[in-house]
Design brief:
Strand order of the largest sheet: 1-2-3
Shape: globular
Order of helices and strands: EEHEHH
Strand content: 15-25%
Largest sheet: 3 strands, mixed
Radius of gyration: 13 Å
Length: about 80
């Protein structure tokens, strides 16, 4: 959780099965972080992470509470695509 050494952090990271590095970064829609700039958190941050080699997806709180199984499936599908 909260992986990174700058203002740009991965909320949750899924470690590679080899234990070396990470397969996927999961970005949550929490606006309680240090940055209150929505442009930075919603547009720049994912692009910067992708430019630095991260595979990222977004999980939105309201979608999680409406149907968390669908969100878990979204994560699983993304991980399958990356194999």
């Amino acid at each position: 959780r909260n992986l990174g050494s700058s203002e740009i952090k991965i909320d949750v990271a899924v470690r590679n099965t080899s234990g070396n590095g990470f397969s996927l970064g999961i970005l949550l829609d929490n606006y309680c972080g240090e940055s209150s700039d929505i442009y930075t958190t919603e547009i720049l941050m994912p692009d910067i992470l992708k430019e630095n080699g991260w595979n990222v997806i977004r999980i939105f709180t309201n979608e999680w509470y409406e149907n968390y199984n669908k969100q878990l499936e979204k994560i699983s599908d993304k991980l399958s695509q990356l194999k």
